[in-house]
Prior knowledge:
This protein is an alpha+beta fold. It is built from 5 helices and 6 strands, in the order ααβαββββααβ. It starts with a helix and ends in a 7-residue tail after the last strand.
Amino acid sequence: MIKAKNFLFNLLLISALVFSSYSCNEQGKKPQTEDQPIIKAPDNIISLGQADSIYNNYSKHRVSIIEGYEMKERAPEENFKASRFVDFDYQMLKDYIAYVDQEAKNAGVQKVKTMRLYFANYPNKDNFPDGKKVIHKRQNSIFMLPTLDKGGENYGFYVGADGKAKLIIDWKTQNNKGMGFYEEPINKSYAGFIPNNFALNSSLQGGNSLTINYGGSGPPPKTDF
């Protein structure tokens, strides 16, 4: 009888240890995650051959014109190489898009339609109006801003002082000083959008610009093509 009790006790003890070990192993396992969905390539991806072709077109039909103007008309005493690219930090771009989504939602924008890139040109000065140093004087650049749909057309927007989305084109029309930061007089008929985001930021009177600039740029030989 005693042997039977001892056998039963040992059996229960072993069972408890096995169950405890199994439970610990199960708790230590990380929950399985579903496989990430495969993202298809966008329709506007181009081949390296096409990229090389249009890069060479720019080299042939634009670079010599830009460099000729800069060295003959704008600043003959200084050497100049035309910029060939603008790059932005990858994580910064992801953060920027997330920030735009956040601010657009808070401002009542139903959907951000596009990210619009404007061509721009840096001044032949040491500093921008906001005090930041001009790294590449006279170089071409780009700035980027989000757009929304209004009446079937896409318009760039910013967040007004009241927290609502406002059209940049309306700000431009209402702002008598909306010519931007030009170093030489310019015929108003040729004035497009302001060439940088710092002039926009300085005139919003409490609003919030969503326009981004200050990417890295470079003339040759720091190119891929």
